[in-house]
Design goal:
The protein is mainly alpha-helical and 130 residues long. Helices cover 42% and strands 3% of the residues. α4 packs across α5. The relative contact order is 0.15.
């Protein structure tokens, strides 16, 4: 995996980390170290209320865990909105910091902004085998 390319892609979308801490933490995470990203603020104000609720709930998914799009829809009180959940996750402004790679389809891995292979690698990095 090309860590520097992925970090560059992620930082290009990051809305504010003048100290470079998120860069350091992303490199640590991609090197296999456990990192807690919960302290980073991610601006979601440009998203709809539904999209914000999806991403806020996604932040609660722990490292090494997975849930399905349907389970995430249920968790936000919208049990029939699994497809809409997937669409909201595509708008995630901070992948990995908001761990949308931990949300999978009931019958497979689902999509990911950096591709399915990267999603699989990130899950494997966290000890999850698909």
């Amino acid at each position: 995996m090309c860590i520097s390319k992925l970090v560059d892609d992620l930082i290009g979308n990051w809305a504010g980390d003048p100290a470079g801490n998120v860069t350091t933490d992303l490199i640590r995470y991609l090197s296999g170290e456990a990192v807690d990203f919960s302290g980073y603020h991610v601006d979601l104000l440009h998203l709809t209320g539904f999209e914000q609720s999806v991403l806020r709930e996604t932040r609660k998914i722990g490292c090494g865990s997975m849930i399905t799009y349907s389970e995430l829809a249920l968790a936000i009180g919208r049990p029939k909105a699994a497809r809409a959940v997937g669409n909201a996750l595509r708008k995630n402004p901070a992948p990995i910091v908001i761990p949308c790679h931990r949300v999978v389809a009931q019958n497979g891995i689902g999509g990911y902004v950096f591709g399915v292979d990267m999603k699989r690698r990130l899950l494997e990095l966290e000890g999850v085998i698909i």
